[in-house]
Structures are given as C-alpha cells and as structure tokens.
Design brief:
The structure is a homotetramer of 160-residue chains.
Chain A: E1 6-10, H1 18-33, E2 37-40, H2 46-56, E3 61-65, E4 79-82, H3 89-96, E5 99-103, H4 107-118, E6 123-126, E7 130-132, E8 143-144, H5 147-159
Parallel strand pairs in A: 1-2, 1-5, 2-3, 3-4, 5-6, 6-8
C-alpha cells in the first residue's frame, strides 16, 4: 500500500566521532524530506542519529534489531523488528532497503557494504570503508562529502 | 515513537478453506480497529486476508517475508521486510509481536505457535493446532470461536 | 565423501525426567551402531545424552549450537557449529538431517517437529508431542516405545 | 571429543582465476597436514578446491551451505550443514572457525572478512580484499604470498 522507497542507513552504534553522528542526523533528515522510509539496525550511535533526523522531519523509521527484544531499540524507531539473529540481521537490512547510505562504520558496517555489493543495491558512502579487491580493482561505490549529495545520488539511481 | 502494540497473525499462504480466510480478514479488522499494528509473514492466504482487513479499517501492516525480494509481499502490506531466511523468519514474526493470533494453519504455523510458547507471548487460537506434550499436558493456549473474542483476549493479556 | 546418513535427535536441554534422558542415550547408541552420524542442538539434557550414547559406540556427533561460541557444546560433540542465531538454528538441525527422532521435548522441540513436517523429513517420536490440526487431523508421525524401534523405523524410511 | 582446531576457508564459488583455485587447493592440503578440520561454504570454486586439497591429505571437511538441501555440496565435503539462510550463513562460517584464510574472493568473501574482524578471529589473506576505513586506517589483517605461510601464521596465532 505504501509506495515510499525504503532507504537503509548503516553505521556503528559506538561512533566516537561527533561529526559522523552529525552526518547521520542530516542523512536521516534528507531521507524523510524526500518522503522515503528510513530503515536501520535500530540501535544507538549512527543509527539513532539517523532516526532522530528522520523524525524531526516527520518521517517514518524502521529498526531491524539484532536481539530478541524490541526494548533495545533507540527511542526514534517507529517500527521495531526483533530478529534474535545477532549480526546475521545485517543481511536483512540490506535486502529490505531499495538503496543504502554507509555513514562511517566499523566491521559490522563493512559486512553490510559487502551484502549491498553482492545484491547490487545502490550504495552511497560518507567517510566510510574504501575497498580494493585481490585483482586491484577499486571504486565499488561512490563516496560523498555531504548527506545531501549522498541521498540525492541514491534517489537518482532509484529513478532509473 | 509509535507506541502502538504489534499483533502478529499467523496462518498459511495456501488455505483452501474460505471460512478461515474470512476469519483472518475479521482478525485484521479487529486489530486495526483497536489501533494496533498488524504483523505477519507478508504472503497470501491467511496473511493477505488479515492485511486486507487491517487496511479496510485504516490500520498499518508489516510483512516479514521469507525470500530476498520485497516483491513477493501481498498488496496490503505497508512495510515489507525481506529476510532471505526462508522459514527461519518465522522466529522473527514471533519475537517482533507483542501477542499473536493463530488462524488455521499448517506446519509453518505450528512452528510459530512453538516459538510463541517458547517466548511466553500471549497467543490466541482460531481453529488451529491443539497440542498434547509427552507428559500428557494440554491447553497451552486458549482457542476461540470468533475473531473478536480472540483479539479481545490478547488485548486483555497485554493490559496486565 | 562420507556417505553416512545424518540422523537428527531433538529434545530439551533441561529434562527433569531421567527416563527421557536414558531413552536419548539409547537413541544415540542405536544411531551409531547403524553407522549413521548423529546431529543435534549440541547442548545438554537430551542432546548430551544422545551424543554420549553415540560416542560410547564409536559414532560421530555434530552439534548445531544456538550461541556464537563453540564453548557451549556438550563434551560429547565432535564437530561444533556455532550459529549465533538462537532458536532460528532449529531449522538448520532439521534441514541438515536425513531423518529425526523427537525424544520428549518442550516448545523448542515442537518447533523442530513442525519444521520436519514442513520439509517432509521422516520423523519418529518417543514420548513427545501429539498434534491435532484445525481440521481435526491427527497422526502426523508415528510414536514408539523404544529407541530401537524408533531408529529402525527411520532407517526403513530412508531405504525407500 | 575431537580437539582438532577448525580452520575456515573463504572465497568465491565462481573464480575464473586458475591460480586462485590452485592456491585454495594448497590451503586445503596445509590445513589437513597440520591435523585441523577444514570448514567452508561447501560450494564450488575456491571452496571445492580447498576441500579437494584437504581430502588428498586425508583431512576432514565441513560445508555450511546456503541452501536448504545438502545436495548442493561439492563432492569433497564430509559433513554437510544445510542452513536455508542464503548468505546469512556466512556468519556461521566465521563463528564456527577458530581462524580463517581468505583466498581471493568477491562480495560474499568480503562479508566474511568483515565478520571475522568483528569477532576478532585470526585471519590470513591470499590475494584478497584490502581495506581502508573512514579514518584512513589500513592493515586489518596480514596478506601472504603462499598457502604455507598463510596457514602457518594462523596456527601460530592459535598457539598463543
């Protein structure tokens, strides 16, 4: 019934970098302003900042949690999905998103980037992992300087 | 942000029994009338009928899909979660629901009943499985005749 | 390379019934005597007793654990698979087994019985759940009095 | 009962590079010569070559399959685990291994590298992904030129 695209935001729960958290907040705002639903891992840090940004603009947020209780969700998640799967839930975040923004990130975020590449999901990077494979290839997805550019890129990709 | 309870509806995609499908439709209506969110496996049959009922009353529906594409969801699902996990997604349906209604059902529904019992989730049955364990115990959850009674029972349980 | 069949044994980690534990031990012995590999959830109670029985006869045992560390396996598991999936690993136990014995059991075992029925896996019951579906059908799998009979039934089914 | 370490081998099913397949074969031989069990994703390409190498040296192999049938395993897998989870099974490969070798690899392998870093598992690379995180850090795991060196490194790490 809802035909709004779902945009995933991936990043760590434990970012010590205030500028990454600020970027995530702006990503959330951009997603909501464009009328898309924001989906993430539902926890704190980058995830919470993105949800907070989306709610500030009246958007809708979904959290795919690693644990078995919805109580671990950050307070800006509208719809909590408790998977009980630990990090295997990272694949669900990718499969359920039409496109994704990686915002900073640690090893968990890297696994989500990998799944996004595997499934050919449009992916925009903001100060996140850069990759070179065993054959020396690079540039698997574009990196941006601002939340606005990153989200604009994804919407352009989804139009095609 | 949303403080609406999430009620799960479990039942088969392939019910040949029109009265079960009608029951599921009424279950969906009752859930939406009471302001709760309906969550299910997102496919056809009982799941689709319940979603259709909820949408008729202006409710919100979430589908937790077994496959890796949101395109398999029935047309009455608002928010589609693509898990790619096959029937392992049945556990997610249970963990994400505050309480559940089992409406008819085959082996997949039985697995969801089992997970609901395991996690102590309030569960109401409508023409579904009856169980006796190896020690001869029965009556693990109540069975009802109408959608209204089943849903009313769950809300009463959630109040406590 | 190994062409030995894999037989799953399902039952609770916390059986307070010594006769169920004794039955599980005999099930493990029978499986090993017939040259099959025993697969289970890798924890204590029925699972440990079955593994202990298999090892007494020189058999091989595999444990599919719910947690993320192999250290939670009982000491009679040869090959530990750490899934980190919680009870979603119950589906893996069923899919990886050619046939299964249910020995007593609680709600987790019921979910495994459900998945075995769903996937058409031969299943033998020993003092376990009895089922009646919403249409009044019963007898979804046979129940036996002894480990020997239960395991013999499964091997007969696998010969076909 | 078995106290042999389990070494995971990760890499793609569809390598077009004969030298990568040859490397994987040698990795499998090294693992078996040292008395460890080889665990992998159970499919073709790098996975099959590694299993073939292990079996040539009389080793034992375990395959954690993405699908729901053990029939998709390569012929050099001794013990097949059918997960039905798709790529979510990549996490199981990492959690069940004491240490891992990444041999070439595509996006799926990258997800396994990510999970290995997340869980602090010793990891050796052979012509595989090189990573730089958003803060510019590199060198998350060592890369080697030969199978012998890669496997020797892992055993040294496990001794500590």
């Amino acid at each position: 019934m809802e035909n709004k695209p779902i945009i995933g935001v991936i990043g760590t729960a434990s970012s010590h970098d205030a500028s990454i958290v600020e970027l995530a907040f702006e990503v959330g705002r951009e997603i909501a302003r464009r009328g898309a639903v924001l989906l993430c891992g539902g926890l704190g840090g980058v995830m919470e900042a993105a949800c907070r940004g989306a709610k500030k603009e009246g958007g809708i947020t979904i959290g795919i949690l690693p644990g078995s209780s919805v109580s671990e969700a950050n307070p800006f998640v509208d719809y909590c999905i408790a998977t009980g799967l630990g990090e295997a839930r990272n694949l669900i975040i990718v499969l359920s998103s039409s496109a994704l923004v990686a915002c900073g990130g640690g090893a968990g975020t890297l696994s989500e980037i990998a799944f996004a590449l595997k499934h050919g999901k449009p992916l925009a990077g903001l100060r996140t992992w850069q990759l070179r494979n065993g054959s020396g290839q690079e540039g698997f997805f574009p990196q941006f300087e601002s939340a606005r550019e990153a989200v604009a890129y994804l919407f352009k990709r989804l139009e095609v």
